[in-house]
User: Fold this.
Amino acid sequence: MTKSFTTSPRRIALAAATAALATVTAALPAGAATLRQPAPAATPGVRERIDPAALQRSLGTPADGLFAGAMARVGGRDGRWTGTMGAVSTDPAASFPIGSITKLFTSTVVLQLVAEGRLSLDTPVQQLLPDTLPAHWQPVTVAQLISHTSGLPRAACWDPHAVYTPAGLVKTVTECPAAGEPVTGADIPQVYNGVNYFLLGMVIEKVTHRSYAQEVGRRIVRPLGLRHTYVPGWGETALRAPALAPQLPPTDPWPWAEGGMVSDAPDLEHFLGQLLRGRLLPPAQQALLFELPPHAERGFTRGGVQYAKLPDGTEVYGKSGSYGGHTNGVFATRDLRRSVVYSLVPLTTDDKEIAKRYLAIVDAAF
Assistant:
């Protein structure tokens, strides 16, 4: 699944590996409608019932030598199953750094602000955050940031040992010679880019005059009763107990609104279920969760949700993310017939092996 910050070569490589998760609809042909909406109705490939044995096998064993541990939680209308493997906690409330799953929280808050009339999807980020992007760059809208169609460059000259403010990290991208100019034009391709969500976090703070953590807390965490979900403070790297597994020292800049949150499996299952059910957004913004922009090769909707069609035709929605030594994902069918949350603790650096393991879990879950 996609890494939480997309500038390092390894994160880009693992992001590319996620294409194996699904056969996502290809780019639109010329003359096609500008929006596509995946069919919501059927979940044709979903197993009739949860298969605990298949799920446990999908986690692998310590003898594989590839993963220190793994956890998966499968839920939905057919019941619930939770399993673990290796050196991870069996406590259902065990927390882990969720990486880029954080982006779902960020896009939800932004869409709520749109619904409140505090900004619009067509508002240029240059208008909301003056002097943040170079003046000669083309306008980049809020909608483009959410759906990864901003065209902003990804390469950055950041120092992994430095502590950046969000604005400082964005500046390293915009001023980095290797980053180049943004991709512009009428038909910007969809390119997954963590910089988009640093900017969205900054937009949230500018519009609300509150911190990103405060807005996520009062708009999502507290209303949904997410007891083990939080935005760590600046420089806070140790997980609050209980933890699923030890967290590795961070090797990337503080990921904040792009990939810095911590949660657990029950909280993520509940959050995604309430998001897809319509609890957090009015109908106009809710519809964006299921609309794919043109050229959505990576399968991110206009609402920032990761969409995938599995080989058997099952359509799932959610997000993946990695940080602090954990590779995670939360996905569900649109009708919430079935959902899965997983977290892996890889020992291997072979992205193909990591992808093979989480694909096995997804296959067993749906």
